[in-house]
Write a structure and sequence with these properties.
Blueprint: H1 7-11, E1 19-23, H2 27-35, E2 40-43, H3 47-50, H4 62-73, E3 80-84, H5 94-106, E4 112-114, H6 122-130, E5 135-140, H7 146-149, H8 159-175, E6 179-183, H9 187-196, E7 201-204, E8 212-215, H10 217-220, H11 238-255, H12 269-282
Parallel strand pairs: 1-2, 1-8, 2-3, 3-4, 4-5, 5-6, 6-7, 7-8
Helix pairs in contact: 5-6, 8-9
Bound molecules: 3-methyl-2-oxobutanoic acid (KIV).
3-methyl-2-oxobutanoic acid is lined by residues 23, 42, 44-46, 84, 181, 183, 204, 214, 216.
Length: 283
């Protein structure tokens, strides 16, 4: 058993050994991630696209996030369990934000929540922190803003946009978030932000200078056939391996070689005799 990774443990990793973060959405994926020694398991709202087949992340609700987070939590990981607040669950009022995040903790087993956006989210972030709910920030290419961004586009490429992102990161860190995900921004900007803020930055498509890296489980293991951004490195090809495995299974069914004798249950001698007389009566 590893030592439990807590929010203070993550905070203390600023500038230290890089944080290893990956998503998981159910018990088997959480167990795989835990065995690989992740520091943080993120139940990301990316589950909308990679697990549930939606076009973007806007369709998932708090109930859906709780359903998946609870499955991950039941595996009791040593990794810190962070759960995404879905779109519209932290935008309407501080009260509703606290209630939704509280449900992610109480019903979903989250140990911290992540939400997207910079200074305009500060009132909600402050409300959560005042309720003792640890918050991870998420800046840059924020997928819940797909329509305002006009698609999934790299952010902070121009001086003014870069300055805004640095100001957002400073404001989030000053407010008390324990870490910030930086997604889809130039590596030089991620480096500046990482130097500027006293909390760990966790990059995805943000270059090598962040304090940690995160990828989506289905992307890094080759389980997802959809579009792959250039920052994804595949370390396994599980979809291809799974298809090949099933093709061999089906070939064995058709050849009559599955199941074998060893894969079948047999009657003991006494039951076999009883079975013979039963068969005789039936015929
Ligand atoms: O939803 C998600 O999986 C995420 C990560 C990609 C950072 O937010």
């Amino acid at each position: 058993m590893r030592d439990k990774v807590t929010v203070p443990v993550v905070q203390a990793r600023k500038g230290g050994p890089k944080l290893r973060v990956v998503t998981a959405y159910d018990a088997p994926s959480a167990q795989i991630v835990e065995r690989a020694s992740a520091d943080i398991i993120l139940v990301g709202d990316s589950l909308a696209t990679v697990v549930l087949g939606y076009e973007n992340t806007l369709s998932v609700t708090v109930d859906v996030m709780i359903y998946h987070a609870a499955a991950v939590a039941r595996t009791k990981p040593s990794a810190l369990l962070v759960v995404d607040m879905p779109w519209l669950s932290y935008h309407l009022s501080a009260e509703e934000t606290i209630r939704n995040a509280g449900r992610l903790l109480r019903e979903g087993g989250a140990e911290a929540v992540k939400l997207e956006g910079g200074r305009k989210r500060l009132p909600m972030i402050e409300a959560l922190l005042a309720t003792e709910i640890p918050v991870m920030g998420h800046l840059g290419l924020t997928p819940q803003s797909i329509h305002t961004m006009g698609g999934y586009r790299v952010q902070g490429k121009h001086a003014e946009a870069a300055r805004e992102l640095v100001a957002d990161a400073r404001a989030l860190a000053d407010a008390g978030v324990f870490a910030i995900v930086l997604e889809g921004i130039p590596d030089a900007l991620a480096q500046v932000i990482t130097q500027e803020v006293r909390v760990p930055t966790i990059g995805i498509g943000a270059g090598a200078h962040c304090d940690g890296q995160v990828l989506v489980f289905h992307d890094v293991l080759g389980l997802y056939d959809g579009h792959q951004p250039k920052f994804v490195r595949q370390y396994a090809h599980l979809a291809a391996a799974a298809t090949e495995g099933l093709q061999r299974f089906f070939a064995d069914i058709q050849a009559g070689t599955f199941p074998s004798d060893a894969e079948s249950y047999h009657l003991d001698e006494q039951s076999a005799r009883a079975f013979q007389s039963f068969k005789g009566k039936e015929e």
